[in-house]
Amino acid sequence: MTSSSERALPTATYRLQLRPEFPFGAAERAVPYLAELGISHLHLSPVLEAVPGSSHGYDVTDHRSVRAELGGESGLRALAATARAHGVGLVLDLVPNHMAASPRHNHALRAVLREGPDSSYARWFDVDWAAGDGRMLLPVLPARLSEVRERMRVADGVLTFDGQEFPLREGTEELPLDELLDAQWYRLCWWRLARTELNYRRFFTISDLIGVRVEDPEVFAATHGKVLELVADGVVEGLRIDHPDGLADPEGYLERLEEATGGRCWTVVEKILTGTEPLPPSWPVAGTTGYDALRQVDGVFTDPVGAAELTDVYREFVGRAGDRGGYWEATARRAAYKVVTHELAAETTALMRIADRICATDPRLRDHAPWALHTAIRELLVRVPVYRSYRTGGEEVLTPEAARGAKAAFAVPEEATAVDTVRDLALGLCGDGPEHRAFRARFAQTSSALRAKSVEDTAFYRYTPLLSANEVGGDPGRPAVAPDEFHAYCARLARDWPATGTVLTTHDTKRSADVRAGIAVLAQCPQRWAELLEEVSGVPAPDPHLAWTAWQTAFGFGSPDAARLGPAILKSVREAGLHTSWTEPDAGYERAVAEFVAAGPGRIPLRGASESAFALEPHIRAQILGTALVQLTMPGVPELYQGTEREYRALVDPDNRAPFAVGADDDKTALVRAALRLRRAYPESFGPSGTYAPLSATGPAAPHCLAFGRADRVLTAVTRLSLRLAEAGGWQDTSLALPAGRWVDALDGIREFTGGPDTPVKLAELFEARPVALLVRESDTSGGEPR
Fold first, then answer.
1. How far apart are CA 166 and CA 151, in angstroms?
2. Which of 9, 174, 603, 730 has the most crowded Cβ, counting Cβ within 10 A?
């Protein structure tokens, strides 16, 4: 863990999604508003040159220049200057793992396709030339070659097809088309062949994004030169590292980056931690981008008893229409098998080829059949309980128990010894040659892709009792977090990663925090939810699983909107892959889905469908304000996604990536402003030197109060599970003893409370005005605002 003493730490960041419709100039105009809101740093989505028209920028094409469509380098520097004048720094989203696999726009890939494995750029990409008969497979055709070859044209040293351009190998331009195609360093083919035949490393299962070998020092230098220049010039003060698990050696990369920046950057990594998995302490970063915090905050506001009851209702409602009965662990395992044998078939085959080559040259490892190696790779991959292993700790990931489970898949015990060989290769226990290192890295990279695609993008859409738990880094099988567990997590952050990032909504969350807040309240009233479903049962759905998922999504969204709900529900059924998919769409089923959404969730105002449903609105509001305040004041650096300073209801991308616009303030905005002012005024209370102290209420409703202090200066108290609280009779005589001193309500600057063990504050009084409280010592305030 890196010391932060040499860099300026953010007190709060604000994420803006840049796109041609919202370039640097638009971001510059937003700076005064964002500075007044109270942020310290503006977090920008990727700014390097990308595929023209890209709405996200993760499809980088040229690391040497800032994206012209956003205003170019001059526009970025002007934005930085304006931000600096308002006391705001810049954080960039850096994409080291992949580039756009577009020869027309990617100069490095274009050179490789023209010159082959001898190109000076060949070291940029993981290409198994031997696997493609000396050629790189390009799965870019909409149909088989024989069906589209007549649409291909050759002119000026370029092969063109439907707007795509492919460079030609020197001396081949005059050949007849069939001979010309066979003479290239690449093979154009039907896109469906990518699943099994691809011979380059890609991002997850997206063949349009090719992996980059930043572990090579020359490639690192070439792909990071412009960003490092911006850091050196003071334009950039922080970096968000996208998908580090895709890299061959994340720790080595981060060490090189730390050295190259001279320790001047606040750096966080988009690392998804599973369960209690720790961030490797040796990584030279400030922490993660915050999905682990999201899981903790959402979880502590989720009722464990009601979530279990809701799961029972879900199983009864869905029956066999979901994923064979609706049990999380089984659903996740089946999804892993589906992805590893289909979507990632090319990746597991690549691992088998490397293992086979190693075994052929090592007397200790010989005589394993390729199919046995392939089976062992598959069975071990599906048993990796986290995203991947790193330099150390691999034995805790690929355990002997996992090996025993993998061996059970073999009908012949003698063949099962291939599992031991693959495990040893993955752990680096049987050699350190180039092929051994390649296998070790590719196994870990494939493991992370498998976890992401099988859990986040498949199982999360197949198992849906409580959709608020189905978020990146979440655990749908255990959606709730006990208050003591939450406090222990925060204490660890304050001690080990005080400058880590925290988030509730990002450009990648499947539902914004405020949508999840509405859904999470259903865990407090599972029978009311069952009643609501009965009220709308007259709208026929293609299947019960879809009905449950669509209605719950609509409830969280809050108001019927078929134009926005429709695409999100369609994406969910395609990701689930139970009745239709992205690659094998069922037109009839998808038409039925669209008709159902239009007639039901997209038309009927579900929250107003009954008196009991309408009564949930105050509890949804308590959830929204409570989660927001906790995230803003817990250990770490909070990030606000664009628009989330007010109530923000958004669904999965691209719904949540609309251009930024300033909206009307609400009570959430007032809360955000107050919390950010305190963070900015007292960075020592919230930064590395700031302490975290849980506070316990006493009385019959004590479990419904979550409270903590930051450095004896700022105190947060929120209401959790407010519906259960109301049903139990409210706060009654429950009280909270504040630390000694006089405390002022930072949200109104008027109310005062006296601290001390002999003068506990009645929670009914503390929460009289709103379900949350943010207090600051009187000596540190003037009119409710920090001095």
1. 14
2. 9
Spell out where 315-373 has E strands: none
The pairing of beta strand 266-269 with beta strand 287-288? parallel
Dihedral sign from CA coordinates of 77, 79, 84, 88: negative
Dist. CA 732–CA 763, nearest whole Å: 8
User: Distance between CA 353 and CA 432 in Å, rounded?
Assistant: 17
Distance CA 742, CA 753 (A): 6
- What is the enclosing helix (H) or strand (E) of 424? helix 417-427
pLDDT at 51 exceeding the cut of 80: yes
Predicted confidence at residue 469, as pLDDT, reads 98
What is the predicted pLDDT for the residue at 787? 35
Whether the CA torsion 305, 307, 310, 316 is positive or negative: it is: negative
Decide: helix, strand or coil at residue 256.
Answer: helix
Report yes or no: 277 and 258 within 8 Å, Cβ to Cβ.
Answer: no
Cα 135 from Cα 184, distance rounded (Å) = 7
Full-model pTM? 0.95
With a cut of 80, say whether residue 123 has pLDDT above it: yes
Tokens at 162, concatenated: 């439907």
Q: What is the pLDDT of residue 132?
A: 81
CA–CA dist 322, 320 (Å, integer): 5
Structure confidence at residue 9 as a pLDDT band (50, 70, 90): very high
Residue with tokens 């209605």: 551
733: enclosing H helix or E strand? none
The arithmetic mean of pLDDT across residues 726-737, rounded, is: 97
Of 250, 244, 293, 286, the C-alpha closest to 268 is 286
Q: Write the secondary structure of 448-508 as one string of H (helix), E (strand) and C (coil).
A: HHHHHHHHHHHHHHHCCCCHHHCCCCCCCCCCCCCHHHHHHHHHHHHHHCCCCEECCCCCC
Count CB neighbours of 592 within 10 A.
Answer: 17
Strand partners of residue 288: 269
Residue 279 phi, psi (nearest 5): -70, 130
Q: What is the pLDDT of residues 164-202, one digit of tens each?
A: 999 999 999 999 999 999 999 999 999 999 999 999 999
User: Phi and psi for 288 in degrees, rounded to 5?
Assistant: -95, 175
324: left (phi over 0), alpha (psi -120 to 50) or beta: left
C-beta atoms surrounding 591 within 10 Å? 11
Whether the CA torsion 356, 362, 368, 369 is positive or negative: it is positive
CA–chain centroid gap for 62, Å, is 24
Quick: pLDDT tens for 396-435: 999 999 999 999 999 988 899 999 999 999 999 988 999 9
Helix 328-341 vs helix 434-451: crossing angle, to nearest 10:
130
Whole-number average pLDDT of the chain: 95
Residue identified by tokens 């039907």 is 190
Q: Give residue-wise pLDDT tens across range 491-528.
A: 999 999 999 999 999 999 999 999 999 999 999 999 99
The backbone torsions φ and ψ at residue 742, rounded to the nearest 5 degrees and listed phi first, read -105, 135
